[in-house]
Structures are given as C-alpha cells and as structure tokens.
Amino acid sequence: MPPDLDDVADAVARQTGSRVAPSGAVAANRLGLSTQVPAKPIYLSDGRTRQVAVGSYTLQIKHVSPKDLPVGSRTSALVLQALRFLGKDAIDDGTVAVIRSVLSRDDRAQLLRDAKYATDWLREIARRVAAEKETLANG
C-alpha cells in the first residue's frame, strides 16, 4: 500500500519547522476537480527545496515565498491551492458545487474564515462555496 504523501509532507514540515501545502495540481486532483494525476506529487513549503523518497515513491517539496502558501486549515489550503491552479476564469457553478459537496459545513465555514487572507477573487469563490445554497448565475 502506498504511503500517504500528505503524512510524509507533514512529517518533513514538523521536522524542519516549516509549513507545507500540496501544489495546485495535487489539490485539484484530490478534490475531484481534475482527473490528471501528477506524475510527481509536489508540495510547496517555506522551507528548502528537497526530494523525499519513501519506498518507491518520491515526494518533491518546492520552496516558495511564505506569502505564496495559504494560511489556515489543511482543508482550506487544499481548496485555495486548487482554485489558484484552475484559475479565476475556469471556475464555474459546477466547480463550486464539487467543492461544496466534498466539504463539511464546518470546513466550508473555516474556508470562509481562512479566505480573508486570499485575493479578492478567491474570497468571492470561498463565499460561494460557503453559502448554504448556491444561487445560479443565470437566474
């Protein structure tokens, strides 16, 4: 059975005192927003760039500026990274519905709180995800 790469990335972050989050491609795949499975899972970190081998799996940790790492809960970070990866123009009602369907009510509320540190368009998408009922853009 393959190792849980999130657990491996978290262990590296604890060991090095750094923050870590899945890259946008990994996040989009995990949330069901993309069918593309990254060949090499990449995690972003404010620590140094490194590769971590666990059995036959290799995890790449890539250094980014701390401002490029989402703040808040792990789930919020996953959603925000996926949204950034997809891009503002690719997000529609279907995308919002998929995200809403995989998040609990508590996760949606936390996303809304965590999105206050994100850019305007990400905050707006978070508001739509957190809404109890999506209002359709066409009426």
Features of the shown structure:
single chain; alpha+beta; 2 domains; 4 strands; globular
Give a quick rundown of the structure.
The chain has helices at 5-16, 24-30, 74-86, 93-102, 105-114, 120-130, and strands at 20-22, 42-45, 50-54, 57-63.
Globular, elongated, flat, extended or rod-shaped: what is the shape? Answer: globular
Strand order of the largest sheet: 1-2-4-3
Q: Which value, in Å, is the CA radius of gyration? A: 15 Å
How many DSSP E strands? 4
Query: What is the makeup of the main sheet?
Result: 4 strands, mixed
Average pLDDT, rounded to a whole number, is 89
Q: How far is it from the N-terminal to the C-terminal residue, by CA?
A: 47 Å
Percent range of helical residues? 40-55%
Which band does the percent of strand residues land in? 5-15%
Would you identify the regions where 5 or more consecutive residues have pLDDT less than 50? none
Order of helices and strands: HEHEEEHHHH
The total count of helices amounts to 6
Q: Tell me the structural class.
A: alpha+beta
Number of domains: 2
Tell me what the structure shows.
This protein is of the alpha+beta class. The chain has two domains: 5-66, no CATH class; 68-130, no CATH class. It contains six helices and four strands; from the N terminus they run αβαβββαααα. Strands 1-2-4-3 form a four-stranded mixed beta sheet. Strand 3 and strand 4 (57-63) form a beta hairpin. Helix 2 crosses helix 3 and helix 3 (74-86) crosses helix 5 (105-114).
